[in-house]
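Work Package 3 (structural annotation) set out to generate three-dimensional models for the target panel prioritized at the project kickoff. During this period the team completed the workflow that converts sequence records into discrete structure tokens, so that structures can be stored uniformly alongside our sequence database. As a representative example, we reproduce one entry of 197 residues exactly as it appears in the project archive.
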Amino acid sequence: MHPAVLLFDLGGVLLENVGFEHFNALLPSPIPSEELKTQWLRSPAVRSFEAGKCKPEDFARNVVSEWKLPLSPTAFLEAFTYWPKGLYVGAAELLAALRKRYVVACLSNSNEIHWQRFNGFREHFDFSLSSHLLGEVKPDPRCFTRALQECDTTAGTVAFFDDSLTNVAGARALGIEAFHVNGLSEVRHLLFKRGWL
């Protein structure tokens, strides 16, 4: 059965983001990628900022302190601003093609800095949703519930794509069909295999 709504994470799915790679390089000892993503999602400093509950300067100060990073909050914030590089080549064309057959939305744990840099990606989605505007972060159930409300749909009509196993598990717990993907080629392959492309 075809879903009515395709709901995409951004970083690591449709968008090139060097953040975890760069962040790992700052840590006293590197953390495996999937584990780092999970720890990032649980970080009080990150959760506060990506829920829209603190200013960028407070976020930077808290991250540097919490993770014991060897640089100033100002230097961290400058680097952090440019972690997302933009949509992968071919992503805009894929989304345009999908929008002819589906409602296409994004649900990203994001923040005021990155969202402003890309103008909320509004031109690419029917619904462009960010945690800092919803006031909720993935993988919390309230974040997915808010996304369903914003898209005026129910869990059973949605296919969700994310590069974090933790977020995929959170979506599945609410009855959303969710898929773990890394990068645009995996998204394409999965869509094709399911007969959705």
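The longest helix spans residues 56-67.
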